[in-house]
Amino acid sequence: MSLRLAARLARRDLRGGVRGFRIFLACLVLGVATIAIVGSVRSAIQTGLAREGAALLGGDAEMRFTYRFATDAERDWMAGTGAEISELVDFRSMAVVGSGDAADRALTQVKAVDAAYPLLGQVVLDPPMPLADAFATVDGLPGAAMERALSDRLNLNPGDRFRLGEQEFVLRATIRSIPDGLADGFALGPRTLVLSGDLGSSGLLQPGTLFTTKYRLRLPEGADLRQTADEAKSQFTETGMRWTDARNGAPGIADFTRRLSAFLILVGLSGLAVGGVGVSVAVRTYLADKTATIATLRTLGADRRTIFQLYFLQIGALSLLGIVLGLVLGGLVPVLLAPLITAQLPVPAVFAIYPAPLGEAAIYGLLTAFIFTLWPLARTEDIRAATLFREALSQASWFPRWPYLLTILAALGLLVGLAMWFSGSARLTLWTIGGLCGALVLLSLAAGAARFLARVAAPLVRGKPAMRWALAAISTGRGGAFPVMLSLGLGLSVLSAVGQIDGNLRVAISGNLPDVAPSYFFVDIQKDQIDGFNARLDEDPSVTRVESAPMLRGVITRINGQPAQEVAGNHWVVRGDRGITYAEALPKTTRLTAGEWWTAGYTGPPLISFAAEEAEELGLHLGDTLTVNILGRDIEATIASFREVDFSTAGMGFVMTMNPASVAGAPHSYIATVYAEERAEAAILRDVASAYPNITAIRVRDAIDRASDVLAGLATATSYGAGTSLLTGFLVLIGAAAAGQGARLYEAAVLRTLGATRGLILWSFLLRSALLGAVAGAIALSAGLLGAWAVGTFVFETGFTIIWPSALMIVAGGVIVTTAAGLIFAWRPLAARSAAVLRARE
């Protein structure tokens, strides 16, 4: 009976409008819409990748091999399975213009294709022409096309000549787009397209050269793609073959999109948590304004359950309204802005209304609203009617009864579990939720400390009435210390953490390069070239260090006789081919952590020294066996030792080092890292490239710049998410300031009656806001620094340095925002007539 009565009373009470719940609704709408927008864009990209999978891949399926061409058996299988086949060779080289000291060189990713390329889609060139015309041989010189970034770098125009290795080409056109560009993944240099048959005299594809072959298949009409994939994997996976098909034509892009969207949704969840603080403040303020209504109902016989149900239904209805508005906004914005978003995306996307991300956002919104409204609602249950007429809610117990606490904790646990499920990353979710809870606790303690310190400091400020009034207002709670700390502080904490993480990632990638990173990586150094290569560098006084090692590539196919990915999951070491070297003696800079190095001249069964940290992650132990496929040949080796490998220095590091006899006879080349003064880098590149045209030089600074560009896009996306949290925090701050306007009216009236000027009262209000903003900014900075340190240390495993410009902006932002909010809501108290305000409080 009480529920029906409560529902009728709630409906009547809502007829008066939602004036006290504008901030409440705004927080829910903004938080839910953010999560819905991110999820909708993610679904649009996933749908686009799935729909355009074959076009993105350049065929229905692809078989990829590392540093070798397909064997006769593999070619026979492809010929019997595919209706059309196209062979591609992908490798890095140096594009050279001119000769001698005047020559100009740039790193390029060469894509050598056959006449059948592309099986699907079309290469768009500038000036427009068929690809066959761009490759045509004229006057004995084959043609080529390259990306504009490379032609501009080398100052090349169509008709100009350049060299790849020892083969000269004529640039016929620049590449505007290629259909399988996304499937190629990240490249260290712009691409050059040539016919593979024109590379015969280039000297680039020698035994041991680092290259990848890709065989694109177009399957017959009606072929079962899944069955074909299973058949290929069962026959060739353990020969080092890697399979990709149109079901996921650009797996790298799909994985990146999924991980980025998961992170952005968690950032959006942080914004929703900020909004939850606003929800709680709005509910508390609303209930405080309803004390007379509640008292009247209690006097007329309404029990505690009816009162609770009345306002629970009211707030529940408003929560549903806010969530629905957020879903409408989150669903429509991506569709309406589809042309703009598509223009910014490097991947295909199909924008529509997707129920799954909207449902996810709705669940987040419902649980957040429930958690943050139940607490203040539960506190009204045990308040007696006689105490409800004035400041009743502030006299209630701060903690609700234990059934409500258990319910809140259960809802919080459900929220965390669903966030882990939706994001697909339990670790990232737990870090995010833990950071939010820690920040809320820290900010709550800071609010209490601010009130205590203000109470202590207020009597000490003599001769400065504005400051004393400001401190007195903070100490008594009239300054809104608690809502300001939680709302603005949490938003600033998220923004602070994102800024520090972004800054530290950039430092980790590009900071202190002259001290820790080599100038160049040189690859594809042939066995008969390594002595001359070392001689050129040994005689150069500007070269401080040269490290070289034989280089092979192999795929770990089995661990202790079991398929590697079944044992190690999706660990990066077993996902693709890995660098392998061999060494007779233990290198001077290598430290073993377990096991022993093989003896000189060892010719027994193959042995491996494995990177210690990666071995621990894979669960490997001394004596375990690894089957490594090198150039199509399986080598089963026993782990003899573990050693330290530091990949963070951008220097040379191999996960696996084998004894020389185990890979005797396998074609391979050498890789070298050169540490030199920056002024000598150009001369080193010129001399090495002139003497050995097949050697490829990768300038570390250029590679880091390309990686930094990718990181910049990620930082921009996360900053937008963090900015949403800050905007929500500002809305909550506005709500808290509006809720405290009644107290400021009375305070201003009393001060004016006692002779205070309007300017002095305004100055007091602004000081109060500035002090709270400074404290909120400082605490947010501390929480953000702590969170960023934890993420950098335990998630990204990088060092941590405080990025001071970002840090100081956080504190300044807190002061500016709270002062602005205080100024907005200061005019009405100053303009009100003191007599009218004081008579109304009697």
TrEMBL record:
Domain named ABC3 transporter permease C-terminal: residues: 266-379, 725-828
Keywords: Cell membrane, Membrane, Transmembrane, Transmembrane helix
Superkingdom: Bacteria
UniProt keyword annotation of Transmembrane helix present: yes
TM helices/strands, residue ranges: 21-41, 263-287, 308-341, 361-378, 399-422, 428-454, 466-492, 720-739, 760-790, 802-827
Annotated compartments: Cell membrane
Keyword Transmembrane appears in the UniProt entry: yes
Topology with respect to the bilayer: Multi-pass membrane protein
Protein name: FtsX-like permease family protein
